[in-house]
Fold each of these.
Amino acid sequence: MSDSRPPIFDDGGGLPDVDRSRRRTDPGGPGSAEKTVWDSDDDDWHGPNYLARRAIVVALVVAVIAVAAVLVGRIIGSDDSGSGSGFGNADWNNVVTVDSNSGTVVVTNAQGEETNRFRFGLSSLADTEVIGSTLISVDADALAVVPLDAEAEITIADDVTTVEIASTGTLLRPSGSAQTVVAQNTSSERLVMVHGPTGEVIDTLATDPVPGARYDLANARTEPDGRHVLVTDTGNFQSVLFSFDRNGPSFFPGLALAVNNDIVVTAVNVGTNANVAVFDHAGEPGVSARTSSVRAGMISSDRVILVGIDGDVLGLALSDGDITELGSLSIGTVEFGDVATRGDRLVVVGELGTALIDADGTIVTELPGARPTTSGVDELAPRRTTCLTVEREAAGELAVIDFETGTVGAEALASSEVLGTVDGCQPIVPTSAGYLSLTAEAVTPVTLVGDVIAISPDGGTIGVERANRLELLPRVTANPTDDADAIEPVDVGRSGRQIFFAEL
């Protein structure tokens, strides 16, 4: 490459730097790809020169919001079991706003016309998610599950499932899926799981309470559909499989490592070694092997991809238990790994950087000094279908990495507080002087007045809070013109509410 190539995280020129300054339930009753490397010494990417394609382009939106929602952005997937909120489908046709203080829910169409309004019985909400057409919310004392409808009446007595639980106030999504959320009680002895696309609920207190359980949700694992959740129970030194397709849980020795629709993988670490075992969902044992201490795993078609604490990438054959050495990572001591929601990429984080590994165990890329973004307006920014967002915090640099090839799709000097689309390839990020739109074609300022608090799943519409109102705006990424000024924002209610996009 020429020495005149743009610096790492080229921001397109002249862009700002980062600012551093109740139905109540009864509890009793992620083919081989060429390896690319983020070189922290020469502060450059070993890859194609993206200067030309990052030239700032005009992207004026001159259609109404409803049209922009369909046509703008890269629409990935059309699984009927998910919606934009569930990361399985980029389509949306309604906006759901939630008042966390009162528990009031308002549904409006894409033109801002209110079509439904109700309260579901909880208030002082600690966390809320909309997955598919299901709203899940939790306060300090209970969790509620509500099937949304654009117009039909919704009542507490007939439509709301409420589970009383002294919760930690957080809805966590297990690694591997965006379709299921889990609430945990303050003692970690009890879990309530909700499958968003169907609204099904599992309450561990009702299904099979385990004395002395201490569930570690940081190590919860599931498959892309989110119907099988494998959780480590540190209180009993075991893993427990909770399934929406089975009547009760199954129990396995060791730490939760990986799960799919058919099998479970656990690991018992002993010193610098590990005993890795495969079971079916009923608990019947399959193959097993002894390896170095394991920190991450992913099930592929004919083997389990394992990553050891020192970065060794191994393949455990499901047919006979043979171990094959597949590669070695150079990201330092491995801390953890998550399977991407697409199911065929393993995101491995070490003390010196992040790596992507495919279903064959091939190292797709290594990114020295980088970590997936997990903070900000959208804490789920890394969990997308096509791209991974990573940051180098010390340098204030952000990059969007293609899951398939490991190449850089977009880069900028920006905050890690990412708002991500379904595909993850076209986020909006804040800076000290406004917002940037990152796409494969350009890094450009987003033209708006107000604070961005939401982005539609397809990336074509943003939710903005300004002048004490919530508004929907097309994603205009150029200097305003007369045509752009003529586009009226869509008002969806007063400020102080959360915005969700859904297909109802």
Note: Confidence is low (pLDDT under 50) at residues 1-24, 28-87.
Amino acid sequence: MTEVQINAVDEELLDTVLAEDVEFSGNMTFRKPLMIKGRISGRIRSSSELHIDEKAVVEADIQAIVVSVKGKVKGNISARDRVELFASCSVDGDVTAPQVTMETGCRFNGICTMVAPQLDAL
């Protein structure tokens, strides 16, 4: 079997980074790429990319174009394009996307459903 490696995003290319000391609870909606390094709980909706860094803890149902996870997520993830699970991540919840990539070593507990892209989703 071939080892899968996902390319990490360059933080400098992102519009917004929520630092490690940020804690947020509630509904989050955004339109430009975002990286979470802190603790978030609630619901996340985006028409862009969401990157969850290694030390981040997210307890939320997530919908975005691309969801890239290095940290911990407890909740369902739905992406219009793809979901990337890095070796360092832990995901407890279902994943739905046309394209799902999991690096060796990632911890995933849920149901993975790969569906055809929906043009009107999100």
Note: The chain has no helices and 13 strands.
Amino acid sequence: MDGIEADYAGRLRVLRLDVQDVAGKELADEYGVLGTPTFIFLDPQGSELWRSVGSINADKVAESLP
């Protein structure tokens, strides 16, 4: 994830949640996160475009960016 974050700086915002933290758990519950790591790709309006559990594909990230 660090590499994807660096490659797409300015075009992609990465938020990391600690699901052991109260706020992180609340957001994980809100988004239906059942396992970690879970990556959720949202559009600028906050609608979910896709999610990946366990790993993330850098090519899919690139294809999803405007």
Note: The mean pLDDT is 91.
Amino acid sequence: MAPAVLPAQNENAAPISIFEYLTRREGDTLCLQLDLQALLAKRRTNEYGKAVLTDAGGRHFPVEVRCYGKFRRMKSEMPPVKLKFSKKKLLAAQLDTLNEVKLVLPFTNDEKGVEALLGEYICYRMYERLTPLSYRARLVNLRLCDNHGNTERLTYALLLEHEEELLARLRAQTVDRWNIPAALLHQDQTALMIRFQYLIGNTDWDISSQRNVVLLQQDGTEGIVPAPYDFDFAGMVGAIYASPNSDTGLKSIQDRCLMSYGTGDEALRRAALTIKAAEQDLYSLCKSKWLPRKASARMTAYLKSYFREGKPACSIDPIKGK
């Protein structure tokens, strides 16, 4: 097996991470060779197994792999996994030592599962368009190969930036505090996240319990920033297994509810203006070449329904109650 030796980089440039290296081109094909049976048998554990990831140029990286997450970990045909690279081998390949990435595959190995994954990808890219204080997600084609030769499939997958890399990139630390007072949050960033979750019709998040939200404190700044992830329950995504947050009273994920979390009206108004200014860019993301035509049309229509409406029909404050 050939070692991972990368092309020489500018000696004055900072080394890129393995996440950035593997996602330089959208839709590149990667191959993950592993004992799939062993991985699925250990989906309830955090035990790592051995695997090999091959990049689009044919370079091999030995990795450790394990399942992670909650709902999708237990329910999906192929659970999300963490890939851990050898720091020593990353250094030898002239890469940064940030050595973990996350990999998400379709919930079901069929058209609906793939469409939902692509929809979630578009949501990640939308939020990244609105603010750099966001997780990065990149689309790859993944060839999943079982060591026993029983399974080989090619599918879309998401490579997600690991929290460690997010913190390093933003020069931030996590804030591990439940029931955090709204007064400690960065009002404009919190309002933007709230408005974005409303835009895509996602109620599967909570700041107080840090469900699908990580709280960040950037060096030398005031105000704690919520950075969201996992958008698969959003109405814009339309996953077949998704359901709305019971606290909202919604009956369908296609309906929206603004969950304000003590954020002031003025900050929410500024966030709405930020999203409005990006309207055409958001439509362009919905027209991604990776999306099937029907899925693109559905997501575009859902986006347009946000820009057409007036005052939200549903609005709750998880701190104060409805």
Note: The longest helix spans residues 111-130.
